[in-house]
Design brief:
Elements (H helix, E strand, L loop, with lengths): L1 H19 L10 E8 L5 E11 L2 E8 L2 E5 L1 E5 L2 E6 L4 E8 L2 E9 L4 E10 L18 E8 L6 E11 L2 E7 L4
Antiparallel strand pairs: 1-2, 1-9, 2-3, 3-4, 5-6, 6-7, 7-8, 8-9, 10-11, 11-12
Length: 178
């Protein structure tokens, strides 16, 4: 009898301990995130976005300098997240665990899909870390640019328009397609 009571107490105690262990959180955290797309060459295309909770409905604002792009087509179930982007017929699919999203960005093209690895981290407000040393070049102005596909079979001309303030550069690429 005493042995069965010991086993019962041990089982209850073990269940309480195991139940109180930290479980990974898959909640979409409100605040600033740092996201990035990884290119085939290993470079990253970083950007910031804010997650906003508006009366229980989440939306994202992608930050591009002073411009903000609202993204409100978000589906989040358990640890899966789907974000349909309003531009470029593209979407993000990933898993959300402990304030991190890992997944894939997909751009739907006419005859195929293009994909890049996507990852994001909550509570990160920097996009590119600033260097302590003063830059020795000012890249302000308009620059002719050619984008070349990874397989080198396609090129796109653009104009890069940049403004530099000490070590911070903001700008955009102007293309015929927008």
């Amino acid at each position: 009898m005493k042995t069965s009571i010991k086993y019962l107490l041990f089982s209850v105690f073990a269940a309480i301990i195991l139940n109180s262990c930290d479980k990974p959180s898959n909640k979409l955290q409100v605040g600033t995130w740092r996201g990035a797309l990884a290119t085939e060459s290993g470079a990253e295309i970083p950007f910031n976005f804010d997650v906003v909770d508006s009366a229980g409905k989440y939306y994202i604002e992608i930050i591009n300098s002073s411009e903000r792009l609202k993204v409100d087509e978000i589906t989040h179930l358990d640890d899966s997240i789907h974000i349909k982007l309003p531009l470029f017929d593209s979407e993000i699919n990933g898993t959300l665990v402990d304030g991190k999203i890992n997944g894939t960005w997909t751009k739907h093209l006419a005859n195929k899909d293009a994909q890049m690895t996507f990852y994001a981290q909550s509570d990160v407000s920097w996009r590119i870390k600033e260097r302590a040393e003063k830059p020795n070049v000012d890249v302000s102005g308009r620059w002719e640019t050619t984008f070349i596909s990874a397989d080198k079979t396609d090129t796109t001309k653009a104009v890069g328009e940049f403004v530099q303030n000490q070590s911070k550069v903001t700008g955009t690429f102007l293309t015929t397609t927008g």
